Write a sequence for this structure.
């Protein structure tokens, strides 16, 4: 992995939580895409992407997330986002992704939303 980027994943029931750390740019965004794709191939469909430690995201990464959201919904799942800092949240709002993704203040709220 890139020195400025890391992915850690874990399971909470039937939800896969992926924590993204550092800078999610054109060089490393495909690694996140690959991670989500592999989980989907293994039958997973519910995801939370926790951006608590994310400091940068670019348009390629946002496009990948949007594409994976579509894929998840096609198999009856979803991708929800949590812990966006103000900068990342403002970028999502500027390009309208806040209307496509469910965005939560914290991981617990995102997890609870899958139980409804």
């Amino acid at each position: 992995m890139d020195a400025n980027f890391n992915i850690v994943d874990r399971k909470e029931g039937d939800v896969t939580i992926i924590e993204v750390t550092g800078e999610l740019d054109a060089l490393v965004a495909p690694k996140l895409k690959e991670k989500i794709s592999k989980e989907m191939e293994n039958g997973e469909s519910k995801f939370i992407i926790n951006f608590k430690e994310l400091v940068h995201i670019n348009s390629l990464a946002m496009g990948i997330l949007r594409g994976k959201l579509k894929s998840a919904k096609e198999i009856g799942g979803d991708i929800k986002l949590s812990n966006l800092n103000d900068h990342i949240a403002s970028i999502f709002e500027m390009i309208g992704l806040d209307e496509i993704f469910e965005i939560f203040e914290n991981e617990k709220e995102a997890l609870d939303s899958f139980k409804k």
